[in-house]
Write a structure and sequence with these properties.
81 residues; flat
């Protein structure tokens, strides 16, 4: 039987490169945030890294709510049998 050839995402070296590029891109965006003028509607929106923190906190809240709702919507394994 023929062995399957490794794809791009199967090689650990490629994964390390992609993660490194991601973090470099993240740092560049975080640094650029200090130099870009924002047209803030509320005073807190003008703070540096506000939208990064807001997005992170929002994501954590959504995941926490989903974990809580899981207990109310969970069914037995034989529910659909």
């Amino acid at each position: 039987m023929k062995q399957k050839e490794l794809d791009t995402f199967d090689k650990p070296r490629n994964i390390r490169i992609m993660i490194g590029v991601f973090f470099v891109f993240l740092v560049v965006l975080l640094v650029l945030d200090y130099f870009i003028h924002k047209h803030a509607y509320f005073p807190c929106e003008g703070a540096p890294q506000f939208f990064a923190a807001y997005g992170f906190v929002s994501c954590v809240v959504v995941i926490t709510i989903a974990k809580i709702l899981r207990f109310f919507t969970k069914r037995d394994e034989t529910y659909y049998d």
